[in-house]
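Sequence in, structure out.
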Amino acid sequence: MGFRGKYKNKRDANEKEIITELEEHGFTVERMDVPVDLVAGHAGRDYLIEVKMPKATMSGPQEIFYGAWRGSKTILRSIDDARDWAIKTKKEANA
């Protein structure tokens, strides 16, 4: 059955450009499926990231995961979101 499970998840159309933007800001990025779309790392810290199209909503399992998760909750919907998040996150890591 493999890591992705019985049914392959559909990737968001904006995911590739968001990954590129994060990588241009020095993050390493790995695609995942469960529980989130991406895991990104920078300066020894790890970040779970959900990629959504601008008007898309969370699925039931995603709502449950984020409702219970006590770590950071990052949802990126555009290149601008990715750029702003990357800059803010890098500043916080260096503070």
